[in-house]
Amino acid sequence: MISDKLTGQNTKHFFRRPFDRFLVIAGPCTVDSKDQLEETAAKLSQIGVSHLRAGAFKMRTSPDSYQGLGEEGLQYLQDAGSRYNLETVSEIISVADIDLMCQYVDILLVGTRNMQNYPLLKALGMINKPVILKRGMANSIREWIQASEYIKKGGNDNIIMCERGIRTFEDYTRNSLDLSAVPIVKSLTPYPVIVDPSHATGRAELVKPMTWAAAAAGADGVMIECDADPLNMKCDSKQTITIEELQSILEKLPSITNIWR
Amino acid sequence: MISDKLTGQNTKHFFRRPFDRFLVIAGPCTVDSKDQLEETAAKLSQIGVSHLRAGAFKMRTSPDSYQGLGEEGLQYLQDAGSRYNLETVSEIISVADIDLMCQYVDILLVGTRNMQNYPLLKALGMINKPVILKRGMANSIREWIQASEYIKKGGNDNIIMCERGIRTFEDYTRNSLDLSAVPIVKSLTPYPVIVDPSHATGRAELVKPMTWAAAAAGADGVMIECDADPLNMKCDSKQTITIEELQSILEKLPSITNIWR
Amino acid sequence: MISDKLTGQNTKHFFRRPFDRFLVIAGPCTVDSKDQLEETAAKLSQIGVSHLRAGAFKMRTSPDSYQGLGEEGLQYLQDAGSRYNLETVSEIISVADIDLMCQYVDILLVGTRNMQNYPLLKALGMINKPVILKRGMANSIREWIQASEYIKKGGNDNIIMCERGIRTFEDYTRNSLDLSAVPIVKSLTPYPVIVDPSHATGRAELVKPMTWAAAAAGADGVMIECDADPLNMKCDSKQTITIEELQSILEKLPSITNIWR
Amino acid sequence: MISDKLTGQNTKHFFRRPFDRFLVIAGPCTVDSKDQLEETAAKLSQIGVSHLRAGAFKMRTSPDSYQGLGEEGLQYLQDAGSRYNLETVSEIISVADIDLMCQYVDILLVGTRNMQNYPLLKALGMINKPVILKRGMANSIREWIQASEYIKKGGNDNIIMCERGIRTFEDYTRNSLDLSAVPIVKSLTPYPVIVDPSHATGRAELVKPMTWAAAAAGADGVMIECDADPLNMKCDSKQTITIEELQSILEKLPSITNIWR
């Protein structure tokens, strides 16, 4: 797969601005079980979400935390995406997993801790899949754009930039969402910019105002942690919203995104 | 003035949520001259702005920078506000200036460097004027709210909280605008929360997206550096927008603020 | 007192590098009582400390925290200094207190929250006493030096710069002590630079290694929170060391400071 | 090599506190050429340095920066180490390079951008070589220690922790050296803690005071960028000191390290 001829611009998954619709990627932090994912996918599909996210390989700060289901989780993700007509998104954490990941998921996600994992970025430059590049939690906008150049240099410019909060002294939120990055990165690159309010704030009650703020700042989409049953998740339970909450957020989005048209 | 009986809740200037309209405070960083301020005030009034801001006493990082016109500047501000029916806002930097300031301006502004100037906050707790309390550029939300308690403890709870960006490692913008603070402070205090996108970003081109984002995050208003002639200002020229730019920002605001009603 | 002719360079208290000895300022955060301060002063004097610090006017983040004894505390400080032949240091928090402070203490201390209180700095530029200028916890070295210029501009260049930690994402310590600031400020100004390891770290067990590190970095002195009975203090108990601990720190200092001679 | 039985505690390279001597690792940022490295190694050996560092695989923020000589560079490093009886240290940036690196170098270095590259850390847990784990430039002490647990969990507890500065708002230095981390990590782990003043400050003139400060804070060693000809290096020229400067630093070290015995 790595050596495939790059033909991204002809695929249905190619991302380039302007988007014709605001991208909404939603789903649980991790694939916990087949049933959980199927139920969540079914409901997301009903409220008009187009992209399902869930992690199978996790980057956990402690080696004793849950590390993910691996290939089994990828299979569940692919099945759920296929059954409910959702594109799938999952995190890639190692060069060794790229071929496997490419067999199962539509869009590969580079997490915040890997934004400067240059060997990984170089390898992702040689695949024919869109890559979501999350901003490193302590990286400047300049470094983030330079990281995207590692991917592009290999030939893959099917890149989506994702602002997910930066590390500051403020500890009420997990990180500080830097929405200024949205218009800045859009002015400096041709790539779409999406926002992850869930990881940025770490608090479910802030997802709604920060999603709306992201849209008003000109973001091209959002990635939101959402689950049919947030209280029974293996990670990130505190920042995950319900399907109903997501629905109420999405209802008001068109009024905001229209101001940019 | 300091010893006046506090009757804030009966005055026309009392601020408490919910606002019936989104508060727009605009004007130059400093009063540079009578003519400049009059021209700007006239134009702001025409586009529907209700509050005029301009500094007469400045907190400049270097002692060699322009320090403001002092009382002469306050007089120009009062004249311009009176002529064009604009409420006036100006920064208070010293306990010694409180009586003077209260004679000339409608709302006193505590700048970011004075958020923890407790003797000043205590003195402002004893006046009968609204106080805008800007967040210290390196202060947590908790400390900011505690600072408001110094004012309230004196009897004055006519307080407006103003998020204006925090200091982080990111240097593309002057500071990092922390819009998460808006819903957080609104959930923890009864005070309105406004946002200053001009000082937060330090870049005129970011004022529009960040004003819209602030409104979408639920802010009750904004304070924007705006001048009839930004290129000829004595300070903050780079972050000041024109009257026309402000007008184009304000036109789209109702679509956003309506989502919160 | 403010209008006194400035003759700092002729007074016994004038500070200019190089120092003939490493300056050790020690004492409790606040004057809690006459007895507490006398006991501490007596013991500090016995182990060779030359300067006694204690606060009478406090800058507390919450208005409900202990605010200090005021003039009564200054009197106790002066008495203890006089009885045990210790120079005295105390924090100035308001222009209105300058005359009073100058009657009681030898060296005025500007705390971290007032580093950019320019009206206060201007007023301190007109007195004939040494001023210790603490670095703002979120201020750059450049801003700190610019703040010193506000004092110097008034005619008082009897200034001691004090590094006391900066605000970062690290939360194991209260702040992050930036010892690089010591050689930098010494290269850019003529002023002595001292270090406050107590407020920087917020942890008594780190005072020893950080004091030694400060000396090795070329600091001209330290200011340390130390009390005869740390467990019964009204504030900062957790970061205050005992007289015995201070003695063990001081014993090893000459080996370090000698490397710079 | 990865599957070797772990017998670290019997090898001559096993690191555990207390050290009998202060560890000095020195050398250029990268292997630029065979001649450069040989000359530097010869001189370092003469002044008593025991460990030679130089990079062959680089993590550069921009894909257009010099990326290192690869295996050729490792060969030069091994040759120089062997000829001048210096242990060798070089950075590992990818799981795919581990076997190769283990053939050439004595100690593997995990750089700041890989501190949370957990697949890499897990793989390093299965080798029989010491690993230097640099602190992530935006990682808390807690996260840094948790990262070390990924290595230890695999069976390799031959770990050296290296403080190298954290990212803050201060921009006079490249990063802010957090020397408080030295006593903290020594109290929380059994591992030696060394300090890299070169990358932390980014300024050659600060290497001396910060090396001395590190030793006074109780560090077990330092890693310093040093070259026979700093002006003609391909990277980090500005922060690299000369052999003569290093010698003058080392001469004074025993006076400092003795205070801890």
Question: What is the overall silhouette of chain A?
Answer: globular
Tell me which oligomeric state these chains represent. homotetramer
Biggest sheet: strand arrangement of chain A: 1-2-3-4-5-6-7-8
Would you identify the regions of chain A where 5 or more consecutive residues have pLDDT less than 50? Answer: 1-11
SSE succession of chain A? EHEHEHEHEHEHEHHEH
Instruction: Characterize the main sheet of chain A.
Output: 8 strands, parallel, barrel
Largest interface: A-B, 38 and 38 residues
Strand element count of chain A: 8
Rg measurement of chain A, Å: 17 Å
Number of helices of chain A: 9
Distance between the termini of chain A: 38 Å
- The structural class of chain A is alpha/beta
What percentage of amino acids of chain A are in beta strands?
5-15%
Instruction: Tell me roughly what share of residues is in helical segments of chain A.
Output: 25-40%
Q: Whole-number average pLDDT of chain A?
A: 91
Please specify the SSE layout and strand pairing.
Four copies of one chain form a homotetramer.
Chain A: E1 23-27, H1 34-46, E2 51-53, H2 71-84, E3 87-91, H3 98-104, E4 107-110, H4 118-124, E5 131-134, H5 141-153, E6 159-163, H6 181-188, E7 193-195, H7 197-201, H8 207-216, E8 221-225, H9 243-257
Parallel strand pairs in A: 1-2, 1-8, 2-3, 3-4, 4-5, 5-6, 6-7, 7-8
